[in-house]
Amino acid sequence: MTADLDRVAEVLAGASRVSVLTGSGISAESGVPTFRTEDGLWENYRLEDVATPEAVARNPRGVWEFYEMRRANMQAVQPNAGHFALAELAPMFESFTLATQNIDGLHQRAGSADVLEVHGSLWRAHCDHCGRVVDPFPFPAPEIPPPCGCGEVLRPSVVLFGEALPHDVFAAATAAASECDVAFSIGTSSVVWPAAGLPVLAGERGAFVIEINPAATELTPAFDVSLRGPAGTVLPDLVRRVRRVREGTA
Ligand code: BV8
Ligand code: ZN
Predict the structure, then answer these.
(1) 83, 107, 119, 126: which one is catalytic?
(2) 188 and 235 inside one domain
(3) Is 180 found in the same domain as 250?
């Protein structure tokens, strides 16, 4: 791993454009459950019951109870060293684009700016009927499901399975992935598309692609290096190494 970390630090030190995709794994060390690892969310909930448009139409209360539970669990959660390290990396490059599949808002709370939330956010709600957006959507919700003024009910502004990703947000993430020198895939099992394809696109366009994950993923073979460890340890270590390379003290 050390040789890989040194190699990645050398490449990063010389990069000017960096794009990052994160998944639930970067929030794992903050105590936020992931989806597909042991005791992940999908072990205890059927995705079809809580994370599809059909579920919202069939049982809006059940969907809101699922997302209100996740918002409640976030009340005691803090960003971890991995989130802070990404915020520290950003100003070290000419351009740094952070796209996340996470809806927890922890990147923003760690100081990252212009975060591209390609799967939406727990902290916003909107109405599919009249388009009303409530941002921020207060916790706890005054009522679930929360009524919209138009007579329908609001839904969490979260991209559900089978729903298109927010066009402008995903277009910005795609543009950044297409033009970067170095891309990261951090804390994601890389099974949910089209977001999972962002680092693959970067690699196809010639970027050096780094995966950070304690486990291998379906896309590990597509990447240049896979740093096999937790983001909360690997990322701060990388920041220190890049600084040393740039200061010539490595
Ligand atoms: C769409 C809701 C079409 C919010 C989520 C090909 C192309 C396009 C679509 C598809 C396609 N193939 C299949 C599809 C359909 C589907 C899909 O991908 N299904 C999969 C499951 C097969 N995709 C969609 O439905 C997307 N929509 O394409 O619509 C369309 C197009 C145009 C017009 C109309 C329609 C929508 C996808 C978004 C769905 N919403 N969530 C929420 O509740 O959070 S997805 C859900 O999975 C979350 O967003 C989550 O972020 C995402 C990915 O999961 P991960 O983050 O990777 O989490 P996971 O548990 O899987 O893995 C955690 C990883 O962390 C592990 O690898 C673990 O080892 C690692 N880890 C653990 N600890 C650490 C760590 N890593 C680092 N450090 C640690 N400490
Ligand atoms: Zn409405």
Answers:
(1) 119
(2) yes
(3) yes
